[in-house]
Amino acid sequence: MSHKDKLSKVIKGFGVVYFLLNCIICVVMCIFAVQAWMTTGMSPGYVVFIIPLMGMFSGYWIRIGKFGWWRSLVIAGSFLILTAILLTAIFISPKMELLKQKKFESAQKAKSLDTKINPPKVE
Questions:
Q1: How far, in Å, CA of 11 to CA of 121, rounded?
Q2: H or E element in which residue 91 lies
Q3: Cα separation, 79 vs 54, whole angstroms
Q4: I want to staple 78 with a disulfide (CB 3.0 to 4.6 A). Which of 28, 39, 58, 73 is the partner?
Q5: pLDDT tens readout for residues 29-74
Q6: Which class for 54: exposed (0-12), middle (13-18), buried (19 or more C-beta within 10 A)?
Q7: Is this model's pTM higher than 0.70 or not?
Q8: Burial class (CB in 10 A: 0-12, 13-18, 19+), 22
């Protein structure tokens, strides 16, 4: 088996994995969109549904090996958006939680110091 055949199989396998990953993301996003719609009565979640749908098409096109200029553009956009979402979820969200926790702790500390300096008035 030549290197070209191995590479072709790897690319097709990646297309299948990418397609399935976006199918899972699509189901999760649908669940969240329906839950938000039931809670609030309106939800723009259907707009975000475009991202995994674009990824599913990209995975399918990678699997069958059809690449045109616009398909390549959609695939590249899908990769960029998915990478941005994953980086946000993995690296930025924990840092935001840490900042929120520090802000809450400093607010609690300031409140306790204010109570010690100015005790509450009992009427």
A1: 72
A2: none
A3: 10
A4: 58
A5: 888 777 777 777 766 666 677 888 888 888 888 888 878 888 889 8
A6: middle
A7: no
A8: buried
The residue with tokens 């900042």 is 99
Structure tokens at 94: 């924990």
Tokens of 120: 């509450």
The DSSP-derived string for 15-65 is: HHHHHHHHHHHHHHHHHHHHHHHHHHS--THHHHTHHHHHHHHHHHHHHHT
Letter for the amino acid at 93? S
pLDDT (tens digit, 9 = 90+) per residue, 68-96? Answer: 888 889 889 888 988 887 787 787 777 77
3-state secondary structure of 118: coil
Q: Which two tokens stand for residue 108?
A: 């609690």
In the numeric block, the tokens 């259907």 are attached to 46
Q: What angle do CA 87, 90, 91 make, to 5 degrees?
A: 75
Q: Contact at 8 Å (CB) between 85 and 51?
A: yes
Distance CA 53, CA 67 (A): 17
